[in-house]
């Protein structure tokens, strides 16, 4: 996905370094540390808030099985399930 000038893939550390430099240049701030992994969590949270099921979310994230997804994001499904009732 991220390549150097001759088409070879970049390592995780180098990608993270470039991401942090880009965030700094953009003067972007967030509570805590903003990382590429933060974007992954944001994507997962967005899917869950749109009430997509755990199997779909698990596949999108590339988890081995839905149990991995639930162990990380179970609290978000609870929030998504209760949001309509709270709004009413």
Keywords:
66% helix, mainly alpha, 0% strand, 88 residues
Description of the structure:
This protein has 4 helices and no strands. With 88 residues, it is mainly alpha-helical. It has 2 domains: 1-32; 35-87, no CATH class. Helix content is 66%, strand content 0%.
List the helices and strands and how they pair.
Blueprint: H1 12-25, H2 36-49, H3 54-61, H4 66-87
Helix pairs in contact: 2-3, 2-4, 3-4
Mean pLDDT: 87
Number of helices: 4
Enumerate the spans where pLDDT stays under 50 for 5 or more consecutive residues: none
Order of helices and strands: HHHH
Largest sheet: none
Specify the overall morphology: extended
Give the number of domains.
2
The share of residues in helices is: 55-70%
Through-space gap between termini: 44 Å
Number of strands: 0
User: Structural class given helices, strands, pairing?
Assistant: mainly alpha
Rg over C-alpha atoms, rounded to the nearest angstrom: 17 Å
How much strand content do the residues show?
Answer: under 5%
Overview in brief:
With 88 residues, the protein is mainly alpha-helical. It contains four helices and no strands. It has two domains: 1-32; 35-87, no CATH class.
């Amino acid at each position: 996905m991220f390549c150097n000038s001759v088409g070879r893939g970049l390592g995780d550390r180098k990608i993270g370094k470039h991401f942090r430099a880009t965030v700094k240049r953009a003067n972007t701030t967030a509570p805590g540390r903003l990382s590429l992994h933060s974007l992954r969590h944001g994507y997962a949270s967005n899917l869950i808030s749109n009430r997509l099921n755990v199997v779909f979310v698990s596949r999108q994230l590339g988890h081995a099985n839905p149990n991995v997804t639930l162990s990380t994001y179970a609290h978000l499904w609870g929030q998504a399930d209760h949001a309509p009732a709270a709004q009413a």
